[in-house]
Design goal:
The protein is built from 21 helices and 19 strands. The chain has 615 residues and is α/β, with parallel strands linked by helices. Among the domains are: 7-232, Rossmann fold (3-Layer(aba) Sandwich), CATH 3.40.50.280; 237-363, Transcription Regulator spoIIAA. It is globular. The termini are far apart. Bound molecules: iron/sulfur cluster (SF4).
């Protein structure tokens, strides 16, 4: 039953193009011969979800299958949801406008803990029971993947199964199994038993959690011996041989990242101790420049986009960057296509590269020193110096740039107020670097933005044992920094400490926090990452009513022998390595870039990538 959204509704809501679909390169299949319908859900609005590379890859990958039809679903904004509920319109997929309750799978990508209430809201809007235990054969399987799935426990009672790691291979294996299961027409439980031993599949209901008297986790064990004790993440070993779409959907409306995203490599070898992505995506595997050029040509031809973004966790570490950008510029400049290099490290900023890349259009520069002093940058293993920063911004100012964004974090382990003063001082030195350049040799209108996020301890990082600063302390530090930024050329932005507190709860929460999510949703919490919709009071009421102490999860330091709610997940990087890195942090010791020298994190066990090439 196709859903028809009346023009009346569309004319009343913000950005109606969020709900109409039919964009260039969107896929429309005849349902005849389709055995599997997969609703790929992004738990945020269209503009955010449409910018997500993982969704683009898996959407086109699944639609390569003749037996499967993958369609997109985004969280309807509050105005549209109101109209849908008032008119009893269930959540529908963008391509077919069919209700997703009729699909075989409803899959969520977990990019941010504070999007979890949107997941619950989307299930409710679709008419699918919120709790896994309440679903019957008439309901789709609810599955999830993405970085936040590395601690799946807060969603354990809501999601039927998780896919750990990279989705390209595992999702096809699950679809193959499902096709066979559907023919056999047996129980839901039977399907879950069929996929339980696919590497990377985690089915929470097949695991029992024991708790110690102090509320910490005692152990997470499979309920049957034939189920895997550890769930090992999946990776794709050779990116050149792995599916990457040669076309992206071109939206009618502006989206957050409205350009071609060319994924250079996965993983990172820098080892910044707060960064989860830097460890869970190891080992590093690169796509060859030849493959990337081939993809860039096709993507440009098939989309008409005027910008190509070279994406990775640390683009300046790409082995063949010079050659790749040279060739891309040669090909794309005549087509008036610009290159953007989002994550260039301070210590490898190259004016020559930036000037070439942005010959068509100049965009602002972003650097992430993360900490205000060398002492603290060593603690977090950032490995860049003040000199690197000043050299890079000075080079950029001589190159005509006058807009610089500087990213820092507040609340890092061992942080002192001297470190916070260091942030303000770095800002002043950047302004001084600009003023030191003769007026005729620099760009006009200097603007420096200092932005501080709050440190959130994440699973599978050397800082997974750390306590987060209290909300009051974070606010005090924000005020302290604000008072020390004097220059009129500097704008200071900071993240909401209450939101970071909740993120910290769900980043390291166990199954007990799952009920709080549902309770908070019942109190109207959703779109929590949007300031105008964030309801902290309701959240704290939900914790209270569920008898769960959020500080136990956010603000408590763990001992090295505590069992973590995610200890049954294997990402390759070992706990002993992370403990060693935690100790080195407290010693202010740097660990070098493992492209040069392997530090034995354990990711080599996955085979493939630089770990092996180094041997
Ligand atoms: S195994 Fe060694 S080379 Fe590979 S990611 Fe870990 S530290 Fe780096």
């Amino acid at each position: 039953m196709k859903i028809k959204i009346s023009d009346q509704i569309l004319q009343r809501v913000e950005k109606p193009s969020r709900y109409i679909g039919n964009e260039w390169n969107s896929i429309h299949k005849d349902l005849k011969g389709i055995q599997i319908r997969f609703a790929f859900c992004f738990p945020d609005v269209y503009e955010v979800g449409m910018s997500h590379l993982g969704m683009k890859i898996l959407y086109h990958l699944l639609n390569e299958r003749d037996d499967t039809y993958c369609e997109r679903v985004f969280a309807p904004w509050v105005d549209m949801e109101q109209s849908m509920r008032a008119n009893k319109i269930p959540l529908f997929a963008l391509e077919s406008h069919d209700p997703i309750s009729q699909f075989d799978f409803v899959g969520f990508t977990l990019q941010y803990e504070m999007s979890y209430t949107n997941i619950i809201n989307m299930l409710d809007l679709a008419g699918i029971p919120i709790y896994s235990k309440d679903r019957t054969k008439d309901h789709p399987f609810v599955c999830a993947g993405g970085p936040c799935a590395y601690n799946p426990e807060p969603l354990a009672d809501i999601v039927d199964f998780f896919m750990m790691g990279e989705g390209e291979d595992i999702i096809n294996e699950v679809m193959d199994e499902y096709g066979l299961w559907k023919v056999d027409n047996v129980s839901r439980e039977d399907f879950l038993n069929r996929i339980v031993n696919i590497e990377g599949i985690y089915i929470p209901r097949f695991y029992k959690v024991d708790y110690n008297e102090d509320g910490t986790v005692g152990g997470i064990m499979p309920v049957k011996k034939e189920y895997p004790r550890k769930i090992r993440k999946r990776i794709v070993k050779e990116l050149d041989k792995t599916f990457f779409p040669d076309r992206f959907i071109v939206p009618f409306t502006d989206i957050v990242h409205d350009r071609i995203m060319l994924e250079l490599f996965r993983g990172c070898t820098r080892g910044c101790r707060f960064c989860q992505a830097g460890f869970v995506y190891r080992p590093v595997r690169e796509r060859s420049a030849g493959k990337l050029l081939e993809l860039a040509r096709k993507l440009e031809e098939n989309t008409g986009y005027e910008e190509i973004s070279l994406t990775s966790l640390s683009t300046s570490d790409y082995t063949d960057l010079g050659h790749l950008t040279e060739e891309l510029i040669k090909e794309m400049e005549p087509r008036k296509v610009n290159l953007s290099l989002p994550s260039l490290r301070i210590d490898s900023f190259s004016l020559d590269l930036m000037e070439k890349a942005q010959r068509v259009r100049k965009s602002g520069l972003t650097f992430a020193p993360e900490a205000g002093t060398q002492r603290l940058r060593n603690v977090i293993n950032k490995g860049v110096t003040e000199e690197d920063l000043i050299n890079s911004v000075t080079t950029a100012f001589y190159g005509g740039w006058s807009g610089v964004k500087l990213y820092f974090m507040l609340g890092l382990p061992t942080e002192t107020y001297e470190d916070i003063e260091g942030i303000a001082e770095l800002g002043s030195k950047v302004v001084a670097a600009y003023m030191g350049i003769p007026r005729e040799k620099r760009g006009k209108g200097l603007n420096v933005t200092i932005s501080t996020s709050s440190f959130v301890p994440k699973p599978f990082t050397p800082f997974q044992w750390e306590a987060q600063d209290s909300i009051e302390t974070l606010r005090e530090k924000q005020r302290y920094l604000k008072d020390r930024i004097k220059s009129r050329h500097i704008i200071y932005n900071w993240h909401d400490a209450e939101l970071s507190f909740l993120e910290a709860v769900f980043a390291r929460g166990d199954r007990k926090v799952g009920n709080v999510l549902v309770k908070a949703w019942e109190k109207g919490c959703k779109f929590d990452s949007w300031g105008e919709h964030f309801k902290f009071k309701e959240w704290m009421e939900a914790f209270d009513e569920c008898g769960v102490d959020p500080h136990f999860y956010a603000n408590r330091r763990r001992s090295y022998d505590e069992v973590f709610p995610w200890d049954h997940i294997d990402v390759g990087v070992g706990k002993r390595f992370l403990i060693r890195e935690n100790e080195r942090a407290y010693g202010g010791e740097l660990t070098s870039n493992c492209r040069a020298d392997c530090s034995g994190c354990g990711a080599a066990a996955f085979g493939g990538g630089i770990c092996v090439e180094q041997r």
